[in-house]
Design goal:
With about 150 residues, the chain is of the alpha+beta class. The chain is built from four helices and five strands, in the order βααβββαβα. About 35% of the residues lie in helices and about 25% in strands. A five-stranded mixed β-sheet has the order 1-2-3-4-5.
Length: about 150
């Protein structure tokens, strides 16, 4: 397995595959279009975020999107993991953990004092994040309302 930054063509392929990645990551709650993905990702890329790509035998196995963010309370600049995805055929082989380690190392080298991420509470990746030392910092709670 190789992990490295994406080139232009690979970035385009990731954008095309990202609707499925978001669908999986949100546990089927969000089914975005490729256009919506672009609207979300392009501002991040313009602010310095980038993808690291995991490949096996020339095939895209997964990716992680990392970059800067700001703490909403203190305005401190921090590192952020915006997206982590491993294709179905490559799951269970340690690729997510390897991408996380590479992403964290890149953010550390970038001088960020902390790395954060957001994840749906029932996403199986929570276990990986906890194993890697991530702790719950804040929680967003919801109450679905019935419309009369």
């Amino acid at each position: 397995m190789e992990i490295r930054r994406t080139n232009h063509d690979e970035l385009e392929e990731i954008i095309q595959r990202s609707p499925q990645a978001m669908f999986d990551g949100t546990m089927g709650r969000v089914s975005p279009t490729e256009e919506r993905i672009k609207q979300m990702v392009e501002p991040l890329l313009q602010k310095g975020a980038y993808y690291l790509l995991a490949t096996e035998k020339g095939q895209i196995a997964g990716w992680i999107l990392i970059g800067p963010s700001k703490d909403s309370f203190t305005d401190q600049e921090i590192g952020f993991i915006y997206e982590l995805y491993v294709a179905d055929a490559y799951r269970g082989k340690g690729i997510a953990k390897a991408l996380m380690k590479s992403g964290i190392d890149q953010l550390r080298q970038g001088g960020y004092p902390e790395v954060r991420l957001s994840v749906f509470a029932d996403n199986h990746a929570v276990q990986l994040y906890e194993q890697m030392g991530f702790k719950v910092r804040t929680m967003t709670m919801r109450l679905p309302l019935e419309m009369d």
